[in-house]
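Before relying on records like the one below, remember that each one covers exactly one chain. Contacts with other chains, cofactors or solvent are not represented anywhere in the record.
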Amino acid sequence: MVELRHVSKSFAGPAPRTIFRGLSLDVAPGEYVAVIGASGVGKSTLLNIIAGLERVDAGTVVVGGVDYAAQDDDALTALRRVQMGFVFQAFHVLPYLSVADNVGLPLALRSERGAEAAARIGEMLDAVGLGGRARSEPRELSGGELQRVAIARALVHRPALVLADEPTGNLDPAIAAQIIGLLRDAVTRNGAACVLATHSRAAAASADRVCRLTPEGLVAAQGGDVD
């Protein structure tokens, strides 16, 4: 599902910085991969590259058989809309929409409305334990509930690839474990590939494979090396 080959990325400016160089990564359909590393090492940048939100300086990025080098921004936007779901640390739940309308955004963007869309929204809310909160406003929800809304929104359109950026960073350990369990179960149920960027040992432990991000690229994390 994801094929990165010898990818390099730098940021220009008054203090130019190389984020990583020579990075390669394969993620198969149905595989759940955790990427760990210190804050600032480039985990979010890596997810943005996979999503087509950041262009690389060198190397190739192929997602779902699509080579990003041959695509313009409109094509990458369309690819994200169809193939990807996103879970962010900061939730990004829209405060002026109900819980159901937030979850249904990916379907609305694809012009999927009506009874079938409503049924899928209800199914996802039930899956994350929020079946009774469809008409609630985001301000009425706790942090853990907002993150569950974000997970339901990321998965409602059954994407082939889920990208999760520190989804438990603002949550207490008990809620964080619940969120990771929900994400893991939903990805498994949908057969989606997932790349999780995290600094949490517990979150990374849920993955099929754990990689550590360094300036030289990704290396397999060794036993006990999940921080």
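Residues 2-220 form a domain with the Rossmann fold fold (CATH 3.40.50.300).
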